[in-house]
Write a structure and sequence with these properties.
This protein is of the alpha/beta class and about 220 residues long. The protein has one domain: Alpha-Beta Barrel (TIM Barrel), CATH 3.20.20. It has 7 helices and 11 strands. Strands 1, 4, 5, 6, 9 and 11 form a 6-stranded mixed sheet that branches. The chain has a 3-stranded parallel sheet with strand order 7-8-10, with no helix packed on it. Helix 1 packs parallel to helix 2 and helix 4 packs across helix 5. The radius of gyration is 16 Å and the shape is globular. The two termini are about 25 Å apart. The structure holds zinc ion (ZN). The site of zinc ion has 5 residues, from loops.
Length: about 220
């Protein structure tokens, strides 16, 4: 089945210092609620998956309650190196998300570009974050999302070797259920209603379609 996967990062006011360029990916609570309502009313609502990256505190404080209110769920990709730090989730928060019916996966430890790491560094980012989250969640964990959407063959091979079964990129467009690599679209604060509807409808501009095709062929070779 084809589906569309949205990625959110932060909702409301950040409670930590943001990295350069990160503010574009934070959206106000009202806008977030608008987008969730658009998902709920979309003809393909059942084909839309919602994900969150970075493990910001707003995942639990703001986003999860709004999801529950609408009967939606989501998968939250956590950075274990930020757990318990100001503005980020702590281990109890992660367990709360699970109790609320949400899924949890790894986004690595320190929010590094996985395509630029040595084999040993990559092993540490992927393996150690998985082990720690499994300890916190009390069950096996099979999914990861790729920081900055940057990956190469070595990244995908190491993800498989570390036991991940589903990996979320930021390549845009449709994703096919059951595939190892799942393309997502990041939602930015400045996106218009028309842009959101295009994403929900599965439309992808021609240039992005070409870039996506070039990147995703990598997965066939990993
Ligand atoms: Zn991230």
């Amino acid at each position: 089945m084809k589906r569309r996967i949205l990625t959110f990062h932060g909702v409301g006011e950040p409670e930590r210092l943001l990295d350069p360029g990160e503010a574009d990916y934070w959206i106000g609570l009202d806008r977030f609620c608008d987008i969730l309502d658009r998902v709920c009313h979309h003809v393909d609502r059942d084909k839309v998956l919602i994900t969150f990256d970075d493990g910001n505190l707003s995942d639990l404080r703001l986003a999860a309650p709004e999801l529950c209110r609408r009967g939606l769920d989501a998968e939250f990709f956590v950075l274990t190196g930020r757990l318990g730090k100001t503005g980020s989730l702590d281990p109890d928060d992660v367990r709360w998300l699970l109790k609320m019916g949400m899924g949890v996966g790894s986004h690595g430890i320190d929010h590094r570009d996985w395509s630029g790491l040595s084999d040993g560094e990559l092993e540490w980012e992927l393996g150690q974050s998985k082990r720690l989250l499994e300890e916190i969640c009390g069950h096996h964990l099979h999914s990861a999302s790729i920081p900055f959407g940057r990956y190469n063959r070595a990244t995908l091979a190491k993800l498989r070797a570390c036991g991940y079964e589903t990996v979320y990129s930021s390549d845009g467009g449709d994703a096919t259920t059951g595939r190892f690599l799942q393309a997502r679209t990041s939602i930015r604060g400045g996106m218009t209603d028309a842009m959101i509807d295009h994403i929900l409808d599965g439309h992808l501009p021609a240039m992005r379609r070409l870039r996506r095709a070039a990147r995703m062929t990598l997965s066939a070779w990993s």
